[in-house]
Amino acid sequence: MVNSRPVFLELWRIRLPIPGVVSILHRVSGVLMVLAIPVFAALFAQALSGSAGFAATAALASSALGQLALLLLGWSLLHHLLAGLRYLALDLGWGLDRPSARKSAWTTLYSALALTLIGAVVLR
């Protein structure tokens, strides 16, 4: 019996279809939000501890690293929301054919990015 299965998979060369990319990013965004909960709880507690704690938290949030983290978490929230709505529509039987699934996946990706950038500009 000849085994034709590959011995070594080069994972970086595998090209997922765009709905697969949206699925993975949906999971990643969910993990990012869950991991951010204790960090934000600690920062919230620090900000409530007094004026010095509030100033330290505000300085961290206004730093370049803090702004990048907030931008990433904003994208995470928006992507998770939009992808979740997309999966709800798929569960209801809407857009199950391949062209519609690809179009809704691209729409989810672009919309989350666009809304994140719009939010970053408006909140600046």
TrEMBL record:
Binding note for cofactor: The heme is bound between the two transmembrane subunits.
Cell compartments where the protein resides: Membrane
Listed Gene3D superfamilies: Fumarate reductase/succinate dehydrogenase, transmembrane subunit (1.20.1300.10)
Cofactor requirements of the protein: heme
Membrane topology summary: Multi-pass membrane protein
Binding site for heme: 80
Record's keyword terms, sorted: Heme, Iron, Membrane, Metal-binding, Transmembrane, Transmembrane helix
GO CC annotations, alphabetized: membrane
Main location: membrane
Record-level GO BP terms: tricarboxylic acid cycle
Family note: Belongs to the cytochrome b560 family.
NCBIfam families: succ_dehyd_cytB
Function as written in the Swiss-Prot or TrEMBL entry: Membrane-anchoring subunit of succinate dehydrogenase (SDH).
Subunit description: Part of an enzyme complex containing four subunits: a flavoprotein, an iron-sulfur protein, plus two membrane-anchoring proteins, SdhC and SdhD. The complex can form homotrimers.
Record's protein name: Succinate dehydrogenase cytochrome b556 subunit
Organism: Halochromatium salexigens (Chromatium salexigens)
